[in-house]
């Protein structure tokens, strides 16, 4: 056949389609697994039968699976994803060099095997991208690589399959093809007309013995069959990829008419082409590649998917809120456990200045369960100091603080689970009359249930006596407890010791430091030898209110949360040891063991008058009126009765704990010393 009777084949480029869940999955993998890694990774795509006239290459969340899903309703193609870390890298990358480098690498990897696992491996693509996680925008560009300078030809007139096959042979071919596809799910196969056999392409093509490929086959009887999504004389782009594969692997086909069946929507519309594959001396490494996809405007340029317009606002908020935390794991804290922070349940006793500050910092750390306990209402003096309240909240007598704080947290982060409880905490030194007994018992039961159902308890109330009952209940139920208290220009932030279920390890000396196990650390009341009483009695207004320099609460609440997170990241959690110096010859403080977020102190005493911090550790006091064995055993025996008795007379706490005996002994020693002086 003369050259005038032949024509150069033309191919229709495919179109890409990215499902939204592909970007969700990419974001999840990039943020939590790949991080700064930008090396190429294998992905999969599929071409469905939904629109036979279009070659639509689709990717979704399943594209990241190690093995593509097989189905008779679609065939797969294989791809390489290259996601850059910065937009500058994305723009500056030489796209011609990129397509050659990735395509050469893919072909080398393919040819490293003796034969194809599946003929779908011939069809491959490149997805080059950059993900802007702050704006939720994804820049991307697909390429469907083909050999640029290899030209294929065929007769000008296309021949229908019907002109080559009789009706009986066509029916037999159809049945065999359907059976083969159900079993093998191969988009390319070989039909031998002489014996009616259907073969896999891998049965005839070896990558290690290329000179032998098709050498023992009568090409007059053989048809290479391939899916073709075109409807006119232009062919599907993937046939061009198939021809390139054959040009590189089958020198026996060079400059010969090879028969191809282009399988279209029906066998009646399918065509047979006698395609000539030229003799090419191009090696794999020297073959230039082309195939970048044009965008929606017909320009060879990237596309952009703006997911901020289609993502659920709540999901969008959740991903944005945790972005800062996730980025910490990229370089600074790769072992940071964000899950433990998010699944921990936090109970904030007090929704005032400290409570608001703690809650906001917990949100920033990714906390998902935050509850408030407070019986107060928002007053006009609150919003300027307490960051969860507005002026409107203080009008008409003021809204309940706990419920308002919880609602405000949900406005800030819709994903958080937050509830406010209006509970008046029973306090020693505040006697309970008969008319108040039912209400007090109800408050006691509710408070204990809340403490049992939460993991971390914050003591953020504004009086000493209001901290006694939560301290005792938290010690009894072995809960992590964080205390924050304010003075005018000073503050105290501390963690309470938690009873160990595995025994009671002793404190030991380590290079001039005393190491105190977490189970032996003291609570807020361990330094006291007097039971708490009514701190509001006979006090003027400035003594009844927490009068403090405005920023002190912000500092204390921030330290309380950072102390909590440090404990949660430590293997021993609230059992982490604390250290204090017992010798002038002690080693450097830098020698104290650290968690992934640094040293974990027992208490932090700050004074902003001198801008000074004092890191101390105190061992548990055996006669503490809140956490001693005597007090916890008395509560275990009498429950409500013990608490009501302590509310009516705080003196019984001193008696049960043994402080009364201790003070009597001290008094006797003083008297005895005095008699000697006489």
From TrEMBL:
Q: Which domain of life is it from?
A: Eukaryota
The record's InterPro entries line, in alphabetical order, gives:
Atg7, Atg7_N, Atg7_N_1, Atg7_N_2, ThiF/MoeB/HesA, ThiF_NAD_FAD-bd, Ubiquitin-activating_enz
Q: Does the keyword Magnesium apply?
A: no
Q: Which GO terms describe its biological process?
A: autophagosome assembly; autophagy of mitochondrion; cellular response to nitrogen starvation; piecemeal microautophagy of the nucleus; protein modification by small protein conjugation; protein transport
- The Ubiquitin-like modifier-activating enzyme Atg7 N-terminal domain extends over 9-311
Q: What is its subcellular localisation?
A: Cytoplasm; Preautophagosomal structure
Family membership, please give it.
Belongs to the ATG7 family.
Q: What is this protein called?
A: Ubiquitin-like modifier-activating enzyme ATG7
Protein source organism? Aedes albopictus (Asian tiger mosquito)
- Gene coding for it: atg7
